[in-house]
Model the fold of this input.
Amino acid sequence: MAFDSLAFAPAARTEHRLDMAAALCPEWTRENPDRALALLFVAPSDCAAVDVLVSLPAKA
Done:
């Protein structure tokens, strides 16, 4: 195949990863539980936000 003979230089690695520790700090999680839950659904992480979400009272 034609693409097998092409030489590609690897792309420069840039770090665009969301810093989960900063984004899901306990205060932010307490103020924005729906957003924190959505973010944890998309990018699972074992952090303090999980404990905060579990300790929040259930909505009626």
